Fold these 3 entries.
Entry 1:
Amino acid sequence: MRTSLQVHHHSSAEELDLALARFVATRLSEALIAWGEASLVVSGGRTPTGFFEQLARQPLDWSGINVTLADERWVGEDDEQSNARLVRQHLLQGPAAAARFIPLYHPAATPQDSAAAACEALAPLDDAFDVVVLGMGEDGHTASLFPGSPQLDAALHDTGKPCLAVEASKPPRDRLTLTAARLRHAHHIVLHVTGQAKWRVLGTALASGPMTEYPVRALIQHEHPSRHVFWTA
């Protein structure tokens, strides 16, 4: 089952954003034809905004597409650090606003209670995600699977819950993340990487070693038929 990681190198961020948007749109369209609906998992941060805007312009039946997040800061959508806010501002615009968005953050007394609510909200999406698009930090984290997190072992190995509350190594420290097992349960996994520094980290992460050192290994080294890296310097 194991296949080589397919690397798609692009000369600029703009070229990458468009190519990635077209790749994801094609996979979602195939899912819509096959199943009548599709599911997309995206990440936050600065890197994906251009991709989001390009994807929103793709001709898709957005009313049949479910969108959720790989991870979230434990903050409300009115907070500038909210990944949900980012997705609503840059992806769920125009025709794409018809998509069903399932946020991870839910108002609750604790991050753990919020994670439990997220698990319940995600329950209808118990099949494999169609496309998961992840970023990666220069410390080798992806989603909110951070090296050194007290909850990292659970996030890497727990197969009972799709979403966990975890502590990050940088503020805001309280995060919600899909587990490695839930992220891997996907038809297509994409890593969106920009910059030479992250490219070097990815090269190191591709070498053998513990997942706890570079948590992104849980996704890129796992046996999976469709693993892709979209990269630009």
Note: The mean pLDDT is 96.
Entry 2:
Amino acid sequence: MKNELLHSYGINFNELPNWQKRGIGIYWKKVKSTGINPLSNEKVEVVRRQLAVDMNLPIGDAYNRYIAELIQKNEAL
């Protein structure tokens, strides 16, 4: 039914990019960065959070594993 509706508007669902079919994932990831301690002017290595965007989400069981890995990584945040 979805494919027929889209086809009536000239859209072929199978030719759409994955992000339009499956959505996108936005999550926090840890990134190492070098900063400067303002008190001692020494370089220090720090861990920051940065937003990550995944435009190619997996499907089926692979998606379940993907989410489980993200949860496991972010429990330590």
Note: The chain has three helices and two strands.
Entry 3:
Amino acid sequence: MIKEIVTYPTPPSVQYAIDVRVLDEEIETLLQDLKDTIKANSLEALAAFQIGSYYNIVVIAKEDGEFLELINPRVIGHKGRVTTVEKTAYFPNLSANVTRYETISLVYQDRDLKQRSLKADGAFSILLQRKVDYTFGSTFLNKLNKEERKQFQKKLEFGSDLAISELCPTTFKRDYIIKLINIIMIIMAILLLASLFVDEPLSKEFWHYQSYLALSAFSLNIIYFFYAQYEGKRFTSCTSCQIGNIIGTATISLIKLSVIMIFSYLIM
């Protein structure tokens, strides 16, 4: 029977899975449910936890269409470290960079509860480790380093890997407009100071330059305000904070411009 796969934020049902002691009808049904669910969802593997079971069982889909049944699996050896991008059905549509063992040795029991062992490396090793994690009530979230965990928490908040690409950048193209406005106001401030040391005819000429510069700075502020909103809409995950920043930046710039022009009018 096809079962519903447990997904985030439903917590793991157990801290440690219960080992199978007897292969009875319940376990037979569980093994078949795992296979049916794997087929229905085109998955590589499932741990019993992922369909709400307490038992320590993992089923792997093989390339030939058969299944590898791992009853009471345990990792008993490992070698090397490797970081790969992982996805799991528990976190739909999400991925993370996870560091795991490159090669592992694993013991398990087969359908006859006979002890078996295998060695795995590469993608198969990663898959096995991820599924064995579930038998301890764990997910790859517990394997992430501090920085990767912080990024993954943001992915969880927005429910998509796209959240990372939409995070507010630290710099925008609109910042160049503000830099240009600041340069113009610096020139205006220099003209204002220079007017204190020249005669009246030249001071009036400075006033004309000041007026043109002020008009340019004001126009650039208007351009900044509308362009910044257009640019901000491209980053929907932080639109609200950007609007406040845009209004604040434009307001401060206009206040500075007004102060310079008031002093220029009084002095020039």
Note: Helices lie at 25-41, 122-134, 146-158, 162-165, 174-194, 200-232, 239-267.
